[in-house]
Amino acid sequence: MFTGIVEELGEITAVETLDDACRFRLRGPVVTDGAKHGDSIAVNGVCLTVVDHEGDEFTADVMAETLDRSSLGVLAVGSRVNLERPTAVGARLGGHIVQGHVDGTAEVLERKPSENWEIVKISLPADLSRYVVEKGSITVDGISLTVVDAGPDYFTVSLIPTTLALTTLGLKQPGDPVNLEVDVIAKYVERMLGDRASSEGATAK
């Protein structure tokens, strides 16, 4: 489990294209400290497994399913990425519960800078809109953010200088893709209410 608090801005140093997958080599001095084979590291919000680790770099394999369902397929050598290690049991939950399982991709629509923060407008896929509410939590490229405004096909977030400086959202421009993970609690609530409604309907018959 992750919290959406990005530990560092890493970099893709090599990309190897395989038959039905891709292998990335990534640089991240913070997240590789103590890393070993089999560990999990979130890359732009996608939970990947460490295959190899040497110095301040690690490699991770990305299957075709993940490439199709996330924006990792557009990454190239030199691309900057958000990196986060799993949270330790008993540690502070600085953001919110993040699984590292991307629900869909979207794109940056607009940026509105101000003196001390920046409002970013992001598209919202129709099948995810019901999970996104004003002042709720959402994960964008692995970053835990609070929704400022939620429309039928978009939402906005307000970014402080720290987020702009230390994550990929300081670099993204309109048209750039991002990974989205909605609040898992909302999905569980929907499932439980749906099961309850089905059960009550069956009983009524």
UniProtKB/TrEMBL annotation:
Gene3D superfamilies: 2.40.30.20. GO terms for molecular function: riboflavin synthase activity. Its EC number is 2.5.1.9. Residues 1-96, 97-193 form the Lumazine-binding domain. It catalyses: 2 6,7-dimethyl-8-(1-D-ribityl)lumazine + H(+) = 5-amino-6-(D-ribitylamino)uracil + riboflavin. It is an enzyme of class 2 (transferase). Lumazine-binding repeats lie at residues 1-96, 97-193. The keyword Ribonucleoprotein does not apply. Pfam families: Lum_binding (PF00677). GO terms for biological process: riboflavin biosynthetic process. Keywords: Repeat, Riboflavin biosynthesis, Transferase. CDD domains: Riboflavin_synthase_like. InterPro entries: ATP_synth_asu-like_sf (IPR023366), Lumazine-bd (IPR001783), Lumazine-bd_dom (IPR026017), Riboflavin_synthase-like_b-brl (IPR017938). Pathway: Cofactor biosynthesis; riboflavin biosynthesis; riboflavin from 2-hydroxy-3-oxobutyl phosphate and 5-amino-6-(D-ribitylamino)uracil: step 2/2. Catalyzes the dismutation of two molecules of 6,7-dimethyl-8-ribityllumazine, resulting in the formation of riboflavin and 5-amino-6-(D-ribitylamino)uracil. Homotrimer. This is Riboflavin synthase. It comes from Streptomyces chartreusis.
